Amino acid sequence: MTQLVLTDDEISVLLSTHKTVTNPRARWKQQSGSMQKNYKVKSTCGLHFVLYLRQNIRLEESFSCGLRYCHPEGKHKDVTLCRYNGNDHIHENPLEGKGKIYNQCHIHHATQRYMAAGRKAEHYAETTARYDDLQGAVLALCQDCHIDFPARTGPLSDVHNDMWGDDSKHDD
Q: Whose CA is closest to 154, among 60, 24, 4?
C-alpha cells in the first residue's frame, strides 16, 4: 500500500476552507491517562474532518489538539493536517537538522516533504507563544483552520476547570 502524499498546495486548500463543527455537544472521554474529545467537522464544500482534543490528567502542560482530514477512500488515507502541542516534551525536525525544540509549545504542520519522506505528515513543527494551555491551543487552531462552532457552543467544557481548578474564582 502506497502512502498518500498531498502537495503543499492541497494541504493549504484543506486548511483554508471554511469549516463548521457538526457535533458541538461532543463529550469528554477518559482513556489511557488523558481526557479526549473528538468533534466532527464539515467544510462548506462537503469535505470531512475531525478536530481532536487531548489533555493529560496528571500534567496540565501535556496537551494536544489537531485537525485530521478524513479522506473519502477511508481511514487508511486520513491525514493530520496540523497539531498544536503543549510544552511537556522535546521535539526535533529531523529533515531540517537544525536542533531541537526544548519544552516549548509548538505547532505541527503537514508538509509534502515529510509525507514524501515516509514520516508523519505533520511531523514538522515550529515553536509558538500564541498559547500556553489547551484552551488557547484550540482557539488558535480554530482561528488558523477556519473552524466555527454553532451559536452558543464552543470547543471546551468545564472539564479543564474540573481537573486544574478555576482560577477566576480567586481574582481580585
A: 24
Tell me whether residue 24 is in a domain: yes
* Enclosing H/E stretch for 101: strand 100-102
Residues with Cβ within 8 Å of 151's Cβ and at least 6 positions away in sequence, in order, are: none
What are the pLDDT digits (tens) for 130-170? 999 999 999 999 999 999 988 766 666 544 444 444 444 43
Rg of the chain's alpha carbons, rounded to an integer?
A: 16
Summarize pLDDT for 44-99 with one digit per residue, the tens.
999 999 999 999 999 999 999 999 999 999 999 999 999 999 998 889 998 988 88
Cβ(92)–Cβ(100) under 8 Å? yes
Number of domains in the chain: 1
Using alpha carbons only, give the angle 161, 167, 170 rounded to the nearest 5 degrees: 140
Strand, helix or coil at 137? helix
> What residue numbers bound the domain in which 129 lies?
8-163
Q: Is 133 exposed, middle or buried (0-12, 13-18, 19+ CB in 10 A)?
A: middle
